[in-house]
Amino acid sequence: MLLMTGCGASQATAPPQLAAFDQPATAEDALPDGRDFEEFASFRRIGEVDGALVYAAQGPVEHPWCIVVVVDGPTEDDAVAGGSCADDAVFARRGVSVEVGGLGQHRTATLLPDDFTGQLEDGWEVVGPNLGAPTGA
Question: What superkingdom does the record give (predicted)?
Answer without folding.
Answer: Bacteria
